[in-house]
Design brief:
The protein is of the alpha+beta class. Helix content is about 40%, strand content about 20%. It has 2 domains: about 130 residues, Irregular (HU Protein, Chain A), CATH 4.10.520; about 110 residues, Alpha-Beta Plaits (2-Layer Sandwich). The longest helix is centred in the middle third of the chain and has 49 residues.
């Protein structure tokens, strides 16, 4: 029976594994660290220690082996005692006891058992897959100090400016300054004109967007409206009739629809609610407009609009014809 294999299995799950009559292997979590000498990175691990004073059988190791080998507790305990006796014999003769994946045991001159843990296996399950690796040290050069050192060694000599006897060069300087100022002025004027044009285009786009929002009004759903079945004795409404633009001056708009069937159903729904609903026609965007009512008097139209906004829809608006 290879006892150290079962000890290694239990070290993954427990912090103390007692070998009856021999000692206990203890584990403690150690943080990751870097060896500055070898530039080696070590992941978090469980450090293993050995305590020869803890020899009382707690049943953990023997029970685990009995369950694994399908044998009785007493038989496994007897086999464990045989292995422990052999380990003590080797240590007593001064030999080193190498337990695979656990560590190395030996006896010093004072008769105490020494232990050196193995670094081959990491028993910390949360560090699974994190291997030890070495890095190349980064050499950083302090450029500022080098520049200061060079400045102290190499003096800087400022030589006087040579003046040319040619009198034509000052005129070239003045001409260059004049051209630079002229080009800057032209560039600034061009940018000013572009800004004015951009503002005008932005205002036009904003006005078009506002007009479109007003014209499209409230309803934009392209799917047919689902309304309850209503028996109407009167003649059914048809949008194909001529729009009644001239019948009124002020129209209270209920909405605009992309599909004629939706506009027709909306008119029928408003009529069932008691409104004098009508089809106004299409706007500039091809939407079919529906009105709650129309009024010849502007004050009456405003009063009706306020009531509709309060009780029906806050998106209703007033369309007045000239």
């Amino acid at each position: 029976m290879v006892l150290e294999h079962y000890i290694a299995d239990l070290l993954y799950r427990y912090n103390c594994v007692v070998v009856p009559g021999f000692g206990a292997f203890l584990t403690q979590k150690a943080s990751a660290y870097i060896n500055d000498t070898t530039n080696t990175f070590y992941a978090p691990t469980k450090s293993i220690a050995f305590n020869e004073q803890l020899t009382t059988n707690d049943g953990l190791l023997v029970s685990y082996i009995a369950e694994s080998e399908k044998d009785s507790f007493d038989n496994i305990l007897a086999k464990t005692e045989v292995v422990v006796k052999e380990w003590k014999r080797k240590l007593g003769k001064g030999e080193k006891l190498n337990l695979q994946n656990i560590g190395l045991l030996w006896t010093n001159y004072e008769g105490s058992v020494q232990f050196q843990p193995s670094q081959e296996v990491n028993y910390l399950t949360s560090s699974f897959g994190l291997a030890t690796f070495k890095t190349v040290p980064v050499t950083r050069e302090i450029l500022k100090e080098e520049v200061v050192a060079l400045e102290e060694k190499i003096p800087f000599i400022i030589s006087p400016e040579r003046r040319d006897s040619n009198r034509f060069r000052p005129y070239l300087k003045y001409a260059a300054i004049f051209l630079l100022a002229l080009s800057s002025g032209l560039t600034g004027y061009r940018l000013y004109q572009d800004g004015i044009l951009t503002n005008q285009v932005a205002r036009q786009d904003a006005n078009q967007q506002v007009t479109k929002q007003i014209q499209e009004a409230t309803f934009f759903d392209t799917s047919p409206l689902e309304l309850p079945t209503v028996n109407v004795d009167a003649v059914s409404i048809s949008i194909s009739k001529t729009p009644i633009r001239g019948a009124g001056i002020h129209h209270i708009v209920a909405g605009a629809f992309r599909i004629k069937a939706n506009a027709e159903r909306k008119i029928q729904s408003l009529k069932n609610q008691g409104y004098n609903a009508a089809y106004y026609g299409t706007n500039a965007y091809g939407l079919h407009m529906v009105t709650y009512d129309r009024h010849d008097n502007a004050e009456d139209a405003l009063i009706a609009l306020r009531e509709i906004k309060r009780s029906q829809s806050s998106d209703a608006w007033l369309l007045s014809e000239k």
